[in-house]
Amino acid sequence: MVERNRLLGVLTHVILILGVLVVAFPVYLTFVASTHTTQEVLQVPMPLTPGPHLVDNYRAALSGERAGAGSHAPVARMMTVSLVMALAIAIGKIAISLLSAFAIVYFRFPMRMAFFWAIFVTLMLPVEVRILPTYKVVSDLGLLNSYAGLTVPLIASATATFLYRQFFLTVPDELAEAARMDGAGPLRFFKDVLLPLSATSTAALFVIQFIYGWNQYLWPLLITTNEFMYPVVLGIKQMMPTGGDAQVEWNVVMATAILAMLPPALVVTLMQKWFVKGLVDTEK
To answer: Do 231 and 241 form a contact (C-beta atoms < 8 A)?
Structure first.
């Protein structure tokens, strides 16, 4: 049993508070900048208290009605594209990985382990290595500036397949035999036994893959030329032109950054219990 120590408790809380300040202060500055005019943001020192232009800046960001250089696509449209990407990638990765792991563990077919290791080896090939041939395939199929082009090349996941395989290997064989004796076929066993047992793992993977899909930058940068197909992470960059004389509306950019943080934060907050349980559940 850990003994209570008042000094140690105070020190622990001080360290935690400092850590929170280090993480939260940049977010606070971003929020403050999103409530001022561009001139107020650029002045030195920048105001550290919220200003009166919060509604105007966020309305300008969501509607795309702004005067600065760079992309003028509505942030509401960008967030819709990011939401579709994140949901399609997360759900697609989970569905394909579940079925792949189920086939590898519960079916006996030639070269079963060879297929598994072929999937596993793709972990050694990051997106940057295969991005040019992937772009060529997507371009030849006419999927540039489309939701299919944004999501399909990113759906397969060797990591999720490996995690589900390891979990399925821990499921007692007696469950499969009992289901077979009760007349349940493979899909019925998968639906009524394996899916409920893997619910917490699925929830944890959904959170991870949703954030992965939401934060995509490099792949959308390559295959989107229409600003109305920009996801919000790419849209933030495109709102900041590189020309020396170009004016950047930093207040609107910061408002967009705050809006881009909200959906991932909401997903993590709402699914925190399932996320933690899926990572640390000792019964697995």
So the answer is: no
Q: How far apart are CA 247 and CA 241, in angstroms?
A: 8
* CA 187, 191, 197, 198 torsion-angle sign: positive
Contacts of 26 (CB under 8 A, 6+ apart): none
* Cα–Cα distance measured from residue 254 to residue 29, given in angstroms and rounded to the nearest whole number: 9
pLDDT at 225: 87
Give the C-alpha separation, 282 to 277, whole Å.
9
Q: Give the length of the chain.
A: 284
194 lies in some domain: yes
Q: Are 275 and 203 in contact (CB under 8 A)?
A: yes
* Angle, vertex CA 24, rays to CA 21 and CA 28, nearest 5: 120
Q: Return the pLDDT at 244.
A: 56
Residue by residue, what is the 3-state secondary structure of the chain? CCCCCHHHHHHHHHHHHHHHHHHHHHHHHHHHHCCCCHHHHHCCCCCCCCCCCHHHHHHHHHHCCCCCCCCCCCHHHHHHHHHHHHHHHHHHHHHHHHHHHHHHHHCCCCCHHHHHHHHHHHHHCCHHHHHHHHHHHHHHCCCCCCHHHHHHHHCCCHHHHHHHHHHHHCCCHHHHHHHHHCCCCHHHHHHHHHHHHCHHHHHHHHHHHHHHHHCCCHHHHHHCCCHHHCCHHHHHHHCCCCCCCCCCCHHHHHHHHHHHHHHHHHHHHHCHHHHHHHHHCCCC
pTM score, whole prediction = 0.86
Is 123 within the bounds of a domain?
yes
In a domain, 30, yes or no: no
Give the dihedral sign, CA 223/159/162/263.
negative
What's the pLDDT tens digit per position in 27-46? 999 999 989 888 888 888 88
What is the CATH classification number for the domain harbouring 268?
1.10.3720.10
